[in-house]
User: What shape does this take?
Amino acid sequence: MSAVVVETATNLAKAIIVLFIIVDPFGSVPIFMSLTENLAETQRRKVFNTATLIGVILLLVFAFTGQQIFLIFGISLYSFEVAGGLLLLIISIRILISGSPHENGESPESIGAVPIAMPLLVGPGAITTTILNLQAYGTLITILSVLIVLLITWIILRYVNLIYQFLGKTGAIVIARVMALLIAAIAIQYILVGISHFLASLT
Assistant: This one.
């Protein structure tokens, strides 16, 4: 096996591992459950199919044009972090108050797009990691890493229903409320990180 192939495989493995850790689909499974616990199984599948597809598109778009988009609109990654945190905070409050993160009649596709695809799967960390992978490893490895990580994520989401069956309806409801607090904590962390990065850039 040539040194080029070994180096390419090694770089691809590094890109996949780093991006997978940042996306963290296993750690977010309880949050996915809380966001979809009121949906039928067929609707839940639509949510996760949409979330995965949009996640791939967003990561690739931001990888190749993210810095230009931020420049065009005059925003920074810090602003993006704060905005994502505020969005998650609103979602967590909705779950705690009404038991659902979305409005009645909202389509599974829209739930899959926001908040599951963004900012849960494709948050500031995932976008930054993809941009760095592009700079470090090139186009092919970056695209492959995004496709592989989101494929693994889709497989994990596809079998979330087994966890529902294990917990039962009451258990799922309890988990949903508890996870709403976790979502709120993640939201606050996003906001604090964004603010701290902004303040650090001023010094």
